[in-house]
């Protein structure tokens, strides 16, 4: 019985330690997600300028970073609900979501201009998230 308690306690301690490491990486993970969203938005802009249309079955390349960023936000929101950098991060994520909401956007004649406008909003939201994160350090 004592051995069992020790094993349970060791597992619990290990889990807390691992979770603590995850929370310590929060700033780096926020920056990484913001970088990815920015990079994929730039790629989308380049496709629009080059008149490259992405087939529906490949649109997941652009929505996958959105899903991962939303998952990250959902996970850390339990630990830090209302944290200024997380609120700003969520706004950047939603700006990216608006940018990739319509997989047929690249087929439109005004795709480059519309994506450029969406990127301006995204870039502004990313800058706000980075500033909020820096203010918390």
Structural class by SSE content = mainly alpha
Main sheet record: none
The N- and C-terminal alpha carbons lie at a distance of: 45 Å
In total, how many beta strands? 0
What's the shape? Answer: elongated
What fraction of the residues are assigned to beta strands by DSSP? under 5%
Counted by DSSP, the helix tally is 5
Please explain how this structure is put together.
The protein is built from 5 helices and no strands. With 137 residues, the chain is mainly α. Helix 2 runs antiparallel to helix 3 and helix 4 packs antiparallel against helix 5. The longest helix has 26 residues. The chain is elongated, with a radius of gyration of 19 Å.
Blueprint (SSEs and pairs):
Layout: H1 2-24, H2 26-49, H3 60-77, H4 84-99, H5 111-136
Helix pairs in contact: 2-3, 2-4, 2-5, 3-4, 4-5
Characteristic key phrases:
mainly alpha
Produce a short descriptive summary.
Helices cover 78% and strands 0% of the residues. It is mostly helical.
